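Aim 2, interim progress: modelling of the 5-bromo-uridine-5'-monophosphate-bound target.
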Amino acid sequence: MQAEVVWGDRWSENSLTMAHTYMEVACRKKSLVCLAADRSTMAELNQLIDEVGPHIAALKTHVDLVDDWSAEAWTAFCSKANSADLLVFEDRKFADIGGISRKQMSGIYDIRSWADLVTAHLISGPDIVDGLQAGWNDVGRQGGVLLLAQMSSRGNLLVPDYTGKVVSVGKNHAGVFGFIGNGSRPEELKVLRKAVGPGKLIWTPGVNLAVGDGEMGQRYGSPREAILAGSDCIIVGSGIHKAQNPSHKAQAYADASWSAFVERSQSRNAV
Ligand code: 5BU
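Predicted structure of the complex, ligand included:
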């Protein structure tokens, strides 16, 4: 079925090209899974694409945690991701003023040249989104910004009042692809979805088939619950890359996310 039909309001009310690109990839793959590829070597990262590429829609990176990073190896890794029909999402969590964020899109990692999506805090004000968009524009590329409206880790300081302010600014900004919500707490997610409305996407870390507490304050909720509460993409890291058989696990997350999404689309109670 066509992406615009399946995604409904999410498609018609979001004008950002990258948002439509994601919705199309998710339909082709029948997966609302973004793999958090938190492995430390280029060989391990490349192996992950080979193992799970067909079951995921996007690959989330932390470019600064790779031990043997080189510009050439990274370029090859990103083109491998693109050939596997994956969006590349650098979880950089930019937070500086607009002009500096624009410069931080270049530098040694040159994020603007390969990332389709980046994360940002809105703590410094709305110009950060313009700065990041200008970064992509500087190299003739398009991308999307995911603003951190909530986090999954315990004790984080993104309290409801702050979340509300991020959403009210971000939902009206054309350069905003969507928001990061807390996948470990469906009740919080429902509140977030209500505030965001039907247009912008919500992506959620803190998701695992084994619900409960993770390492160092991470918390986990179920994939199905997250999607039914209004998430449009579950971000899964160790649940896949630390599994005995990452390919099988990725398939299980894809199936859980897609069946919940179909259920949500069909019920039309989805907000
Ligand atoms: P995990 O292994 O599934 O716990 O990995 C989660 C990933 O999502 C990891 O790369 C974090 O940097 C990222 N993350 C998160 O866990 N929680 C958040 O609130 C945000 C990002 Br924002």
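The beta strands are 33-36, 58-61, 87-94, 117-120, 144-148, 176-180, 201-204, 212-213, 219-220, 233-236. Residues 246-267 form the longest helix (22 residues).
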